[in-house]
Amino acid sequence: MPPGEGMAFELEMPAKARYVGLARLLAGSIARRLRFTEESIDDLKIAISEMCTNAIVHTGNGDIGKPPILVRYLTGNDFLTIEVKDQGPGFDPRSVLGRERIDLLGKGFGIPLIQSLVDVFECDSQPDTGTVVSITKYLRPETEES
Amino acid sequence: MNDGEREGAELDVVLEDAGRFSIISLCGEVDVYSAPKLRETIRDVVEKGNYNIVVDLEKVAFLDSTGLGVLVGGLKRVKPHKGELGIICSQEKILRIFRITGLTKVFPIYRSREELLASIEET
Asked: Are A82 and A75 in contact (CB under 8 A)?
């Protein structure tokens, strides 16, 4: 996968904890082919792990009959975007996006952690229609591996 | 893929004693799939009356907020007994997660097992 070539990959996975590693593995593999640094790859792997974990929790922790999670990987000239869509009950994004890390001791580190590791973080959630969380990380020519 | 465990994050947990500390050594990845194994180990240690715990993260290849949450949960278990939960870690990629979340101020961090043992000898 040469840098500069826009491509899209999709992974539809059961909403079960055991598959988070698979989504993480694919993110790392795509980012490595795009020549992100190892630090950026680690950032992306943590971010997608958090996103998938949240999606699984929202979708009912893998209860039988729960709908799958859709993970989309979009590559472009200088970026990797990853979207995670679940079909859980949804929530008000404003209730979590503004939280300070100091309030999060004990649980809820996930979203502040994602925000600190990626360049763009977006969350669209509506009651009863599920949640789409999207992150983008850019290649930085001066620091990324050539 | 069968319904086995190969596709999930693998995590080996080894428990040993070092003076007044119980050391929980981890090898592998700590995420939503594997973190319950760590949570159960910490709970077992505390239920046996050992309130000074150190989790060795030197061989951890991946740790996310679920793992951090388990460590914070462990800290909450030992604090009422005036215990301590520390970590051993010199890996920058893991330490960075503790810094971002402000947890370097919460957990005693030893850069190596030798540093922990030296600290035990001093007390």
From this structure: no
Give the Å distances, CA to CA, from B43 to A70, B51, B77: 34, 10, 8
How far is Cα of residue A14 from the mean position of the Cα atoms in its chain? 16
State the CB neighbour count (10 A cutoff) for residue B1.
Answer: 8
**Which member of A20, A39, A108 has the closest CB to residue B33?**
A20
Q: Of A42, A53, A109, which has the smallest distance from its Cβ to B101's Cβ?
A: A109
Eight-state DSSP code of residue A66: P
Q: Please compute the mean of the pLDDT values over residues B49-64 and round it to a whole number.
A: 97
What does each of the 146 residues of chain A score in pLDDT, given as a tens digit? 665 578 999 999 999 999 999 999 999 999 999 999 999 999 999 999 999 999 998 787 556 667 899 999 999 989 999 999 998 776 666 665 555 443 334 457 888 899 999 999 999 887 777 899 999 999 987 555 55
| Residue B61 DSSP SS3 | strand
| Structure-block tokens of residue A10 | 């999709």
Is it the case that residue B63 has pLDDT exceeding 50? yes
> How far is it, in rounded angstroms, from Cα A56 to Cα A68?
9
pTM for this structure?
0.88
Name the 3-class secondary structure at A119: coil
* Residues in chain B closer than 8 A to A106 (CB atoms): 69, 72-73, 76
What is the C-alpha to C-alpha distance for residues A127 and A89, in angstroms, rounded to an integer? 6
The candidate with the shortest Cα–Cα distance to B64, out of A27, A119, A30, is A27
Report the C-alpha gap between A121 and A117 in whole angstroms.
Answer: 9
